[in-house]
Amino acid sequence: MVSSLMSPPWLCLGLISLISISVLVNSSIANTERQVYIVYMGEKPSGEILIESLNFNLLDQVLDGITSRESIVHSYGRSFSGFAAKLTEQERRKLEGFQNTKEHWQQKLESDVIIGMIDTGIWPESKSFSDEGFGPPPKRWKGTCAKNFSCNNKIIGAKYYFSEAKDNLSPRDVLGHGTHTASIAAGGCVANVSLFGLAQGNARGGVPGARLAVYSVCHRYRGCQEVDILKAFDEAIADGVDIISISMGNDHPSEYFIDVIAIGSFHAMKNGILTVASAGNDGPTPGSVTNVAPWLISVAASSIDRRIIDKLVIGDNRTFEASELMLNLYDYTRTNFEGKGSIILCYGDDGGNSALVYKAEGAVMIDESALDFGKQYPLPALDVSVAVGEELLNYINKTRNPVVNIHKSEEIFDENAPVVASFSSRGPNTITPEILKPDISAPGVNIIAAWSPNASVSDSPVDKRSVFYNILSGTSIACPHVSAVAAYVKSIHPSWSSAAILSALVTTATPMNESRHYVAELAYGAGQLNPARAANPGLVYDAIEADYVKMLCNQGYNSTKLKILTGDKTSICSSKNGTGTVRDLNYPSLTLHAGEGKSVNANFSRTVTNVGIAESVYKAEIRTTSKLEVTVNPSVLSFKSLNQKIEFIVTVSGPPMSSPSMVSASLVWSDGKHDVRSPIFVFV
Ligand SMILES: *[C@@H]1O[C@H](CO)[C@@H](O)[C@H](O)[C@H]1NC(C)=O
Ligand SMILES: *[C@@H]1O[C@H](CO)[C@@H](O)[C@H](O)[C@H]1NC(C)=O
Ligand SMILES: *[C@@H]1O[C@H](CO)[C@@H](O)[C@H](O)[C@H]1NC(C)=O
Ligand SMILES: *[C@@H]1O[C@H](CO)[C@@H](O)[C@H](O)[C@H]1NC(C)=O
Ligand SMILES: *[C@@H]1O[C@H](CO)[C@@H](O)[C@H](O)[C@H]1NC(C)=O
Ligand SMILES: *[C@@H]1O[C@H](CO)[C@@H](O)[C@H](O)[C@H]1NC(C)=O
Ligand SMILES: *[C@@H]1O[C@H](CO)[C@@H](O)[C@H](O)[C@H]1NC(C)=O
Ligand SMILES: *[C@@H]1O[C@H](CO)[C@@H](O)[C@H](O)[C@H]1NC(C)=O
Ligand SMILES: *[C@@H]1O[C@H](CO)[C@@H](O)[C@H](O)[C@H]1NC(C)=O
After folding, report:
1. Packed helices 260-270 and 226-239: angle between N→C axes, nearest 10 degrees
2. Which of ligand 6's atoms lies nearest the C-alpha of 513?
3. What beta strand segments (E) does 240-305 contain?
4. pLDDT at res. 104
5. Which residue has a Cα nearest atom 8 of ligand 3?
6. Which residues pair with 244 in a beta bridge?
7. Distance CA 148, CA 172 (A)
């Protein structure tokens, strides 16, 4: 959350502050009632942001009887910020009112956006959820607050669904997870937080001006029940959230009609709400990705440039670097082992439990699976690689009085970031192989964010330390970063469908370095989330409910299964509409599941909608280092108006591939201002 990687658009000041609105000049042209005014808003905001959309949005709030597109004469924004527009005297005064109330422009937009968090609840007293400066909730909001819980103008709804529990009945978070994810998505600015001095800095969520609605479905002792998750979707949609953020998933990918997150998010999609979900923490095994439905966005976790390491210094002064801390090196299984004054060395990460049982002072655990992210333990402990473990064993064996010192964790700069974490679940999508999942990657390693003081710092029940900010890793943590950006896009484009927002996030993602990743696109999807570009994608790949239904028919779902998912008696698949392929879905990535040993040859039909500049010309560019041959027809798209749709066909061909193997390329539509990039991924 305080990652410096994302610093330009994630400053604590809010994305754009309305420094001053001053109406400079007017000249009487146009009609008698409206005059052209220049509205000057000061400095150009940092980052590539969509001045034009923001201008339209601001204008729409004051105009009476005409649209912003009819009113605006010019948008300024290359060197400074502002616009010229045709306004009546009354509209002009209303605009000036914005200056008088000193409202922050983006905060104003954001404050109309509500993120529904389906998680473990929230700690409402956290500074991250202060409602200072917030007005009342948007009028359309229909949510409510549990009786024994205090909502405010930041947390505008809080409910709990615990079908299997009769105690702890409250949306109050006692596990920490929900507080963490909520503050990443929409926490306010809190100065100088840290975890025992680590990761010190200002904490801030992605959209600090947005509202939160909390749906707690995970009970301390009863876990997260599917029936409760579905209830939370049902309520969140009816309450009027704009984005749903769910950092949960099944242990294994499952068919959509038996997957409550797929079912819930399908209904969300029908209501224009994008669901953002975590890809899972079962990587790097291929095929481990969950939350694979095309009507939700599935998020992988990547590192940030702040790495946290621990040093282990042994008696001969040799220093080992580890991801986190565990050592007097004894075989602790000996019955009369006395741990006091010792650090134990063991195979496997048991969370430091053996050290606790033997009353040791610390632990060194040999575990290769957890070396690229930090973990908290109830005592000084760390994981080391097998190679380091062997050196330590060797040292113990050769030394009469082996000693070791576990140093306090340190921060170092990681120039390789972002890299997808080992634990992040990988594609291919085992339910619909021709839909690339995960879709995108976002920060999810060693992220500091708000925490419940009633939860353990380290996940160990014996750990009684209580903190208000904690460091966590996981795709759970990556997910709310994307939820925030989705909410940001929604604040600027309130009418966009869930597919349009998904497309905007995917096509503006920054490509990642294939050579640093096991299974490439199957690890990161389109690449790393890019908040600065997401609101201004130029073109989007849109889709509606019928498109997804058609895809499901093409995938072989029959009407019985379809109805469970859609809840709609009229959704039926017949032989007529089951003749296409899954690839026909207008998805922003292009994936082909090719046959082993057969030449690659397939067409993808796609339609893009112009959401950038009315009159614009986009040219197709194919980026490939593989043997794939890609052609696009037509390869030039000339738009005359906004919201105009143009169809094209991408033909992908290549030599036969062996099993397993994969190749990729990308299609970029560019008008010189926007690069609309789609990964092309072929695997056997
Ligand atoms: C909250 O209120 C509900 C219903 O009034 C009650 O059953 C529950 O025990 C209360 N929870 C707490 C933590 O006080
Ligand atoms: C930040 O907090 C730490 C303690 O957590 C304190 O030592 C330090 O002085 C604070 N810095 C500022 C600038 O307030
Ligand atoms: C280890 O380092 C310490 C302090 O740096 C030094 O006093 C000591 O002699 C060193 N021991 C060995 C075995 O090199
Ligand atoms: C320790 O040394 C003995 C004898 O040199 C050897 O048999 C044993 O395998 C060694 N153990 C380890 C863990 O290296
Ligand atoms: C939270 O912690 C406080 C203070 O330790 C304690 O009084 C309270 O009972 C705890 N609440 C829960 C729900 O665990
Ligand atoms: C990708 O990573 C490899 C290996 O770390 C490195 O050699 C290469 O320069 C990187 N490529 C880019 C474009 O950064
Ligand atoms: C499939 O075709 C049937 C009959 O032709 C039609 O009623 C139904 O709506 C179609 N379903 C879809 C998903 O297009
Ligand atoms: C759909 O398939 C299921 C089994 O997979 C079957 O029980 C059901 O009758 C089928 N429905 C239709 C309409 O064919
Ligand atoms: C792809 O489309 C072209 C026409 O655009 C057609 O000639 C060709 O046969 C199609 N290829 C496949 C594999 O369907």
Report:
1. 10
2. 1
3. 243-246, 274-278, 296-302
4. 52
5. 317
6. 116, 275
7. 9
- pLDDT recorded at residue 577: 60
259 is annotated as an active-site residue: no
> Which pLDDT belongs to residue 247?
97
Ligand 7 site, residue 575, Cβ cutoff 6 A = no
CB 571 within 8 A of CB 563: yes
DSSP assignment letter at 36: E
Ligand nearest the Cα of residue 170 is 1
Residue-level length of the chain: 684
Q: Would strands 636-639 and 616-624 be described as parallel, antiparallel, or unpaired? A: antiparallel
Which of 3, 71, 128, 177 is the catalytic position?
Answer: 177
Pocket test for ligand 9, best of 584, 601, 603 (most atoms within 8 A of CB): 603
Contacts of 392 (CB under 8 A, 6+ apart): 314, 320, 327, 329, 345, 364, 384, 404
Statement: residue 616 has pLDDT above 60: yes
pLDDT, one tens digit per residue, over 135-166 is 999 999 999 999 999 999 999 999 999 998 88
Convert the pLDDT of each residue in 546-598 to its tens digit.
999 999 999 988 888 888 888 887 778 876 665 789 999 999 999 999 999 99
Q: Is the CB of 398 under 6 A from ligand 4?
A: no
The pLDDT tens digits for 180-206 are 999 999 999 999 999 999 999 999 999
Smallest CA separation from ligand 1 atom 6, residue: 169
Whether the CB-CB separation of 179 and 200 falls below 8 Å is answered with no
Helices (H), 381-458: 386-398
Q: Which ligand is nearest to the CA of 579?
A: 7
| Ligand 5 atom closest to the CA of 172, numbered from 1 | 13
Domains of the chain from N-terminus onward: 17-100 (3.30.70.80), 114-304+419-530 (3.40.50.200), 307-411 (3.50.30.30), 533-683 (2.60.40.2310)
Q: Which residue has the higher pLDDT, 336 or 252?
A: 252
Tokens 């876990």, located at residue? 223
Calculate the average pLDDT of the chain: 86
User: What is the CA(346)–ligand 3 centre distance, in A?
Assistant: 26
CB 36 within 8 A of CB 43: no
Query: What is the residue whose two structure tokens read 């049902």?
Result: 234
Model pLDDT, residue 578: 57
Which positions ≥6 away from 213 have C-beta within 8 Å? 114, 115, 116, 117, 143, 155, 156, 157, 158, 236, 239, 241
Q: Which ligand 3 atom is nearest residue 316's CA?
A: 13
The verdict on the CB of residue 603 being under 6 Å from ligand 9 is: yes
> Where residue 275 falls among pLDDT bands split at 50, 70, 90?
very high
Considering only CA atoms, which residue is closest to atom 1 of ligand 5?
454
Is pLDDT larger for residue 52 or for residue 631?
Answer: 631
Contact 677, 506 (CB under 8 A): no
Contacts of 61 (CB under 8 A, 6+ apart): none
